[in-house]
Design brief:
Elements (H helix, E strand, L loop, with lengths): L1 H32 L6 H4 L19 H24 L1 H4 L1 H24 L7 H20 L1
Helix pairs in contact: 3-5
């Protein structure tokens, strides 16, 4: 009985040794291959060979991440549909009902994201705010 767990212990030990060995080899290769020339250009951010202008701590619009996450979520769900479609005839009516429920859940999620306005690149409320700001700025320029 105890001998059955020795196999698991051996595999875990080999896995941990492989992990530690890989990390040590990567560290050693990094030490041997890195550039030893230190100057100001090596410490700047890489921007296609151009000198950086302005600060590097800029805020990205959250829409980039939201759209990317929505795409990944629905793309992964499509991956689940393909194997089901391949063996659809063998699975029968029960699998059809299960996949219909799955697709319904996906459609509810899509409708939620759509109604929330996360699929719009520029939301209508932001457009109206931008118009108000531009009209205020335009009014300030006229009053000068």
């Amino acid at each position: 009985m105890l001998f059955d767990y020795v196999n698991v212990l051996v595999f875990m030990t080999v896995g941990v040794l492989f992990l530690v060995g890989s990390l040590l080899a990567a560290r050693l290769a990094s030490r041997l291959l890195h550039s030893r020339i230190h100057n100001l250009d090596k410490l700047t951010n890489y921007e296609c060979g151009e000198r950086p202008i302005g600060g590097t701590a800029i805020q990205f619009n959250i829409r980039f991440y939201v759209i990317a996450l929505i795409f990944v979520i629905f793309e992964v769900e499509v991956v689940f549909l393909y194997p089901w479609a391949v063996v659809f005839k063998d699975l029968g009516f029960f699998a059809f009902v299960e996949m219909s429920i799955f697709i319904l859940i996906l459609l509810v999620g899509l409708a939620y994201v759509w109604c929330k306005g996360d699929l719009e690149w520029v939301k209508p409320s932001e457009i109206s705010l931008a118009r108000e700001r531009s009209s205020q700025e335009h009014g300030e320029i006229l009053h000068r």
